[in-house]
């Protein structure tokens, strides 16, 4: 009887030992996985620390420079593709620009060079000079020829004798004359004195007050139009 009970107990004991071994193996597998994940996380953290240290050592505007270089590379590739197909790059670029982008760039350009109005004559003269110089399109081929012809003498110093050493070309003279005529035509169209309307209502006491009233009308006229009409009709509350 005892031998029979021992035989019945052995399979149960063996099964329990097998289950315990399986659980232990499962725990060891999970432990190895966690260990590998921890090592991987430690490695990734170390790489991130190294990369962050590199970024901190770079110049402050490195990201902007990198983006600019990447954009220039794309532009060069696009120009080569257009040249290979026999197309004009500027025309292709304009065809790819949407109306919204064009309007946004135009607004950005206006913000970059805003018209601040008249402050003093020196500022007005400087603005005029900058506007005129932006319109100048230099002849680089002629410049290279002059450089080969005169060498260092092309760049005058305080000891250089400039009078009579330069003779402007006919094209340069014609360009200057055309520009001066354009400036004269523009000045003739512009009049600083505004026309005076004798029939307009006099709602000011002096010139300064008249200017203030015009400004107020320009900014708030649409909001006060109904009130003015009621006052004129005598129906204001």
UniProtKB/TrEMBL annotation:
Residues 1-24 are annotated as: Disordered. It is found in: Nucleus. InterPro entries: mRNA_splic_SYF2. One of its GO terms (biological process) is mRNA splicing, via spliceosome. Keywords: mRNA processing, mRNA splicing, Nucleus, Spliceosome. Coiled coil: none annotated. Pfam families: SYF2. May be part of a spliceosome complex. Involved in pre-mRNA splicing as component of the spliceosome. This is Pre-mRNA-splicing factor SYF2. It comes from Ardeotis kori.
């Amino acid at each position: 009887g005892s031998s029979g009970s021992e035989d019945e107990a052995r399979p149960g004991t063996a099964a329990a030992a097998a289950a315990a071994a399986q659980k232990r193996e499962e725990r060891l597998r999970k432990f190895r996985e966690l260990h590998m994940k921890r090592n991987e996380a430690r490695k990734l953290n170390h790489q991130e620390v190294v990369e962050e240290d590199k970024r901190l050592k770079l110049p402050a505007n490195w990201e902007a420079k990198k983006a600019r270089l990447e954009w220039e590379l794309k532009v060069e590739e696009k120009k080569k593709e257009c040249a290979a197909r026999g197309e004009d790059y500027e025309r292709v670029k304009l065809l790819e620009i949407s109306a919204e982008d064009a309007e946004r760039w135009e607004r950005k350009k206006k913000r970059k060079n805003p018209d601040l109005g008249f402050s003093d004559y020196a500022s007005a003269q400087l603005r005029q000079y900058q506007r005129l110089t932006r319109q100048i399109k230099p002849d680089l081929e002629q410049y290279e020829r002059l450089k080969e012809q005169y060498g260092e003498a092309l760049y005058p110093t305080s000891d250089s004798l400039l009078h009579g050493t330069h003779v402007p070309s006919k094209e340069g003279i014609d360009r200057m004359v055309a520009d001066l005529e354009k400036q004269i035509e523009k000045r003739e169209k512009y009049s600083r004195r505004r026309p005076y309307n004798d029939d307009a209502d006099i709602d000011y006491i002096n010139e300064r007050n008249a200017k203030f009233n015009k400004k107020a009308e320009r900014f708030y006229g649409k909001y006060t139009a109904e009130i003015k009409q009621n006052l004129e009709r005598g129906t204001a509350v």
